[in-house]
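Anyone? Bumping this.
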Amino acid sequence: MTAEPRLSWTEVRDTIRARILARHYAPGDKLPRDEDLARNLGCARATVHRAMQDLAAAGLVERRRRGGTHVPNDPVTRATFDIPVTRREVEARGSLYGYRLISRAIAESPPAVMARFGLQDPSPMLHVRALHLADRRPYILEDRWIDLATTPEILEVDLAQHSANEWLVHHKPYSRVDVRFHAVNAEGEIARHLDTPRGSALLVLERTTWIGSAPITTVQSVAAPGYEVAAQS
Amino acid sequence: MTAEPRLSWTEVRDTIRARILARHYAPGDKLPRDEDLARNLGCARATVHRAMQDLAAAGLVERRRRGGTHVPNDPVTRATFDIPVTRREVEARGSLYGYRLISRAIAESPPAVMARFGLQDPSPMLHVRALHLADRRPYILEDRWIDLATTPEILEVDLAQHSANEWLVHHKPYSRVDVRFHAVNAEGEIARHLDTPRGSALLVLERTTWIGSAPITTVQSVAAPGYEVAAQS
DNA sequence: CAGATTAATATGTACGTACATAATAAGTCA
DNA sequence: TGACTTATTATGTACGTACATATTAATCTG
């Protein structure tokens, strides 16, 4: 008789997940200790621990040393979005990517930008506005501020040829990022550049990065009408 | 002389991350093998593996058996959102939560709803519209469809007293969720219920859940103007 | 009986061994 | 020389041991 195959951590995870889904463990409930689950399922504690790590990352359980493992009392929906550089996104849709620099100027950071970075004092920044196109039609209007203290080399980049978006992603790694979504009505230049009626509802992706605690860039990417962003499956 | 403390996986992760940030490993680059990194850093291969697992989850590296570890050529920004039930979100803001059922009707799923679920044939569903309030002002307008094949018990719930949002989160776990954001202009009933001028730009969170491959619910939560959703830090 | 202290506990972690396996490189063959 | 097969390799994993540590429960003291 051959040895019984060992239980994998993914099988353990799916078993526990099924019990949570079946409300065998309901919101607020405490789960058995790792050691007891291991004995019950016929595997090692480390295998249960690995499965729980995954469940915790998904928000299905909460772990506490000594305190044990619980199903959260107030579950949240956890959704992860992968936001590519715009060129890749357009090309991934099978569309032709286009880029156009609208404006580029050195200026002191305005209050709204300072607020996004959490800055008290203005600092010299490069203000870049650019349009990304898909199949020759406006797709994303980008309004970006780049801190010249951390990123002086952006001044050497020909932003008429290369989007700041891509340059930064390749040359300027960050250690912290803040991402937000909101909606705005198309007005003035936004309506013009995106070639859309004034008043159209537009989705805005705001993304701010820091290296350590020093600001790098903050961008508002205003999407053409109809744009929708989906979490990864 | 006391034994040197062992390197922790978080220290290994931070070291590798710093090297990626410093472009010691640039986009497209292949990293040294786990075993070599372990020797280089003076720790176990399992410790390096644990650190890499975390870096991979953050999207900073890509792992392939035999193929090794690479810095992605096309890095993406990975942002994770935790979406609580509306009551918790309102209370977390220090506001008073209120709830009002607008309408409740059994109907066959319309094409747009079938599309969201990936259904070919319509099925009987409960269509619920409700308003969530913060400090007595409209906050989120919820337009929801609940599949009666998987969730017949929703018919017994007094939705005038309890939001479907909370009932489902507590009683109906799901195994798959699809989350999307887009923007709409406030029109007709939406403008009325949210008490906002027609034409206002509104952020919409769309969330669809399945148990196995069977639909549970799909909801469009239309936020009052000014609403913004932020990724977790 | 409340606050402080101590003990116990359940999870977290470093490691090493042995093995699994996906993926790449090398070799073979027509 | 290209297609196919085989070998090699680098990561993935199960486990067990030993220890670390955050947290909770129990105990002590005034």
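Late reply, but here is one note on the structure posted above: Residues 6-9, 43-47, 50, 64-68 of chain A lie near DNA strand D (CB under 10 Å from a C1').
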